[in-house]
Design brief:
169 residues
Length: 169
Amino acid sequence: MTLLSRKADYAMLIVSYLHHKPEGGNARTIAERFGLSRPFVANILKELCHRGYVVSHRGVKGGYALKESARAVTLADFLASIDEGFRLTLCNHTADPTDVCSLEASCPVRGPLSDIHRRIVDVLRGVTLADVVAPPPVSPAPAAGLLPLLPPEPACRAGGDHRHQPAIV
């Protein structure tokens, strides 16, 4: 089960590609790079352009480039504009009034799931597209010897039993 639609997932993939290619790219190149359908990539690029995340350039060297302002958009806002937002369950906010769960009125888990949904959306509001497409560098691993990777070898037990005992962590 995925929580994001394929469209939203690919839109983030395309934004990431354009972030790392300041000169931009076109639907064919992006589709080939990721093994995606060119028409689907083209439709997502058109929507990203319409929503103001990318700009298009016509001509032989034409294509799409990521707008600098797109990097500051929250993931919650991006998902809402691309694919009606994030929904954990049917009873979480939807634009379609006919998209209602038949158990909504008597559902015993509606409240807790609604709370979980709200928490996830709050997290998505704290993450920008820049955080997704250009994550901060990973801090270096600690120097060798600071943290032992394996527990020390156990000493041999009296009586000649030289089997290793399981380490207690």
